[in-house]
Amino acid sequence: MSLRLSTVILPRDRWHEGGREKWRRAEELGFHTAYTYDHLSWRTFRDGPWFGALPTLTAAATATERLRLGTLVTSPNFRHPVTLAKELISLDDISGGRITLGIGAGGNGFDATALGQEAWTPKERADRFGEFVPLLDRLLTEDAVTARGTFYSADEARNIPGCVQRPRLPFAVAATGPRGLRLAARYGQAWVTTGDPKIFEDGTPEQSVEALRGQVEKLGKACAETGRDVSELDKILLTGFTPDRGRPLESLDAFVDFAGTHRDLGFTEIVVHWPIADSDFAADQAVFERIATEALAQLG
């Protein structure tokens, strides 16, 4: 499978003050998918503008024609499968079947307590994720669902007419642990990773490559255990969280080298952040656009 190049546009811009133009430009540049983060607020951007992911994607769907759109990633931190399914079916319809749902277990960020609850332990996040994904799968593929779970339930939840994409829109499951990888193997059309957070601060790019190689191998084992061919899953690397940080966007050659190395690990999609000045995602816009339009051709 040839390598795809995608971008993630953080939902920080008012739609009529630059927001719409970024999504249209992403389509013009030829990106495969443009994602956005599904958070209530996020890290250093917490005290600045931040808009909702699904309304932003709905607007982006009406402003574009070919570009795939998605979340990277949605989590149970403030979502419920029943209401999320209804919104996703609507979004898939509005976009004409161009939506990918990136989904993960969530973490201890601001979303974890925004609804007034205590932050969940890692085990509880994993438990909830293990219930969330199968129920969401049912809600997006069945006309009516009744289910009783420890954390999530549905009572004759109707989702007619279902997704435009059949049997449902694709899941890109973010996971590195054994339980999450099993969910990716069973329910995912793609798998997402940001690398190994343990080596982000003090590790080297070479150590990151080895860590990612190990993650890909674990995904293969999880697929084998579920009787699935790992080649059926797209393998997505969301950049910016490995020891390389923003270096791959410093030049076209730097990106081609980075992308080639990770393609050789088995990754089928590389996602780069749309540049944001004075942030961890700062990059030269002209270089960024050159990467978007020229890098894949150089990779062959």
Characterize the structure shown.
With 300 residues, the chain is of the alpha/beta class. 38% of the residues lie in helices and 16% in strands. Helix 2 (53-63) links the parallel strand 2 (33-36) and strand 3 (68-74). Helix 5 (178-187) crosses helix 6 (205-225). The model has no long low-confidence stretch (mean pLDDT 97).
Task: List its salient traits.
single chain, 300 residues, alpha/beta, eight-stranded parallel barrel, two-stranded antiparallel ribbon, 8 helices, 10 strands
Straight-line distance between termini: 12 Å
Number of helices: 8
Strand content: 15-25%
With strands numbered from the N-terminus, the spatial order across the biggest sheet is 1-2-3-4-7-8-9-10
Q: How many beta-strand segments? A: 10
> Uncertain spans, ≥5 residues at pLDDT below 50?
none
Average pLDDT rating: 97
| Helix and strand run | EHEHEHEHEEEHEHEHEH
Oligomer: single chain
Structural class: alpha/beta
The coarse overall form would be globular
How much helical structure, as a percent, in the residues?
25-40%
**Describe the biggest sheet?**
8 strands, parallel, barrel
Over all CA atoms, what is the radius of gyration?
19 Å
